[in-house]
Amino acid sequence: MSALNRLALPLSIGLTAISGLGVLLTLLGQSVLTGGLLNFLLLLAVASVMALRLPTGWRSGLLAGLALALTTLLRANTDDKIAFYLLLAVLIGCFLLPNLTGLVRAALGTAILLIAVPIAGLSNSFLFELGIQIGIFAALALGLNVVVGQAGLLDLGFAAFFAIGAYTWGIFGSPQAAQFIGGFPAQGLPGNYLFLFMALAIITAAITGVLIGLPALRLRGDYLAIVTLGLGEVVRVFANNLDKPLNITNGPQGITPVNRPDVGILADFLRAIGAERIYGRPIDDAIAYSFFFYLLVLVVIGIVVLVNARLANSRFGRAWVAIREDEIAAKAMGIPLLPTKLIAFATGAAFSGIMGAVFAAKQTFVSPESFTLQASINILAFVILGGMGSIGGAVVGAAAVTVLNLGILKDFSDLLNTWRQTGVSILGYNMANLPPQLNPAKYERLVFGLILILMMIFRPEGLIPEQRHRAELQEARQEAKEGGGT
Amino acid sequence: MTVADLLSILPQTILEGLLLGFVYAMVALGYTMVYGVLGLINFAHSEVFMIGAVIGLEVFRFWGNPEAPVISNPFLLLLVALIFAAAGSGTMAVLVERFAYRPLRKRGSKSILVPMITAIGVSFLLQDLTRIYAALRHNEFNMQYRTYDVLNTTLTLPLETTIQVKGIIIIVISLLMLLGLTYLVNRTKLGKAIRAVSQDMQTASLMGINPDVIISRTFLIGGSLGGVAGVLFGLLYTNVTPYSGVLPGLKAFTSAVLGGIGNIPGAMVGGLVLGQLETLSGTYLPFLTNGNFGTEYKDVFAFLTLVLLLLFRPQGLFGQNVSEKV
Fold it and tell me: H or E segment at B162?
């Protein structure tokens, strides 16, 4: 171990330097290191910088260097998704690695989020799409994290609040509202009202949270789970069928087109800073909207994380944890149970409500399909994977699952398809014989299921556990080892 | 429609609710028995039920192939399908317990969330494994049960009600299974052991009962009932998909909660009550609201009933009021 510690610094410096050199050579058109090898080197470098024990200063420097190398590489090879995933890993690292100074975290994080990702996204707008999806899911995960992780109330109908937020803007920001409100503008409210409706979505979602919570939160544990599941389905059934007697939600066809805010100023800004050179074409609406929603999601996530962190350390946050750990003891300490739980429900609902409104505008389409039980459970999977109760965990969980789902599974499907067409044989099996039904991108439930089971068996505290929760689980494990448990 | 018209379709509606209710009751038993011994909502039970339906379908499909039937008598074929489904689903439930739930129990985690989330994971896994199987084997998502004229013959009963032969079969088999289970739980040694474990696992183990064995048997019994219910469900609705266990499973769980979860007679009554609620609301809601709120809202009605009942009787219809231990 000590040998590894002594070697850690030279090893990570060496790896970073070699991969940096590789990137430089690629830029100069000298493909000494081919794509796959370079990616592998970068992967090793990122892994070594993040996992090995390094002095603070060196780690900050190497992270910055790697971020720079990855951004340059992404600029040169626009389709290099692995580089993008590594960039995300560096980003997550600079928020979560233990021994970095606050200044480094802030500077590096801002640089990656506001410079590196936009440069990569302008080169390949799929990366913006991925970033936006991660952001939306992260807000949902943060919302559910308040309810399940911090207050310990299992809510299996969480997508309902997302739906409320989405429909709040979807109905009024589209021709839909004119269907049942006489004299309403035929095209719905102009897109710039979105900002007002994001605030309204917070309120409507929070009210729904209280309305669902009032009956449901009198129950506990398993009963709560099944009742929230049922009420979540009730919201979806209403969204699916309220096209009569009054056409409020347009039923299963969904609402389209939902208006988006005006992005003229942003497009001008992009032109002014010369983004056209990176984009390779004149700035058009598509890329301006991608960039706009990326920024919007970023701002919303920032607010949500800030509010969440402040709440977690407030009176309410401590009361939630107390209720999670022992309801009766919490009550005995004078915590009013129902109001405290209702606040948790309303807070979680508000987080997902605001993202719902953004989601509606981003998709320009809202339909009940997006808010099924499956969606609720996906959100739960983010929280579980990341670590129940931990804010960083919720974001990392959402990022990991989204990358897995939208990126890695799709890439793997594509790879299998290529193998199938070229008829490569692997371990003596001719891949051309592989049935076309085996398409990994289609079986996301299987992946979710496996993640949930394996996490529960091997690491129930999640990837980035909340401190308190980790201690508690270790204690239980210790007890079981000593033969105390049954 | 006049009141007389509404009344005249009432017997038929009740009869249809009864068929549905028996299927729910059998699935609900699987939930309630597992909850009784482990205190766990076994979300994977809806997939055990669905797998039963798929196994039955495969028996019908291959041994009842009209070109070269191995078994040509549809009644015999149904019996074989039921036996295979019971065995297959029972085994599946035992395997799920062995490989997903037991490791958690052994580690001594006290959180109720951990096993429940595992159950959700298992449920997802089984859904997609079945989907892969269906895609590879038949290249389809919707699987159709074979229909037989003998089973679909309609009989007329008094009060202007009609029932198909398969409806009678469903009622008879469900009644037999429910009576058999009641006997097993109340009159046999195994039943006594199951009741003992669900009352107090630790004390039961001091009395020479091996809780692991009993839990495994409980999963076997619940799973077999679920498998049988799956075949009957497939017979009733003819269409099975890898995801078709979800909604009936949810309803069956609702029935179990309605009757008081952990309580065996409660699950049976809860299933029958929910079956009635669903068909009655499905038939009468459109008339009562002038067609504004149609049959689609029958699930809303079922869930809202559950919420209301739990508000006034949190322990369900038959559950005992267990006060929280400090």
Answer: strand B161-164
Does residue A354 have a pLDDT over 90? Answer: yes
Long-range Cβ pairs for the range A470-475 (8 Å, 24+): A473/B109
Structure tokens of B98?
A: 């062995």
What's the whole-number mean pLDDT along residues A222-244?
84
A425 in helix, strand or coil? strand
Pull the structure tokens for residue A175: 């021709």
Is B127 part of the contact surface with chain A (CB cutoff 8 Å)?
yes
Q: Across residues B119-141, what is the average pLDDT? A: 84
Alpha-carbon span B242 to B60, nearest angstrom:
17
Q: Residues B27, B259: contact at Cβ < 8 Å?
A: no
Query: What residue in B sits closest to A384 (Cα-Cα)?
Result: B117
Question: Could you tell me if B301 lies within 8 Å of chain A, comparing CB atoms?
Answer: no
Element (DSSP H or E) covering residue A429: strand A429-430
Structural contact between residues B165 and B151, judged by C-beta atoms closer than 8 angstroms: yes
CB pairs under 8 A between A and B: 146
Spatial contact of A286 and A298, defined as CB atoms under 8 Å apart: no
Task: Answer whether residue A325 shows pLDDT above 60.
Answer: yes
Min Cα separation A391/chain B (Å): 19
Cα→Cα distances B163→B11, B79, B172, Å: 11, 20, 13
Q: Which two tokens stand for residue A325?
A: 């750990």
Phi/psi of residue B154, each to 5°?
-95, 130
Confidence at residue B325, expressed as pLDDT on a 0 to 100 scale: 44
State the nearest Cα–Cα gap between A353 and chain B, in angstroms: 22
Quickly state the pLDDT bin for A164 (edges 50, 70, 90). Answer: very high
* DSSP string over B145-158: ----HHHH-EEEET
| CA pseudo-torsion sign A40, A45, A47, A48 | positive
| ipTM of this predicted structure | 0.81
Mean pLDDT for the stretch of residues A79-106: 80
Distance of CA A378 to the CA centre of its chain: 11
Whether the per-residue pLDDT at A3 is higher than 70: the answer is no
A93 closest CA partner among A78, A115, A114, A108: A108
Per-residue pLDDT tens for A392-437?
Answer: 888 888 888 888 877 777 777 777 777 777 777 776 676 666 676 6
First to last CA, chain A: 37
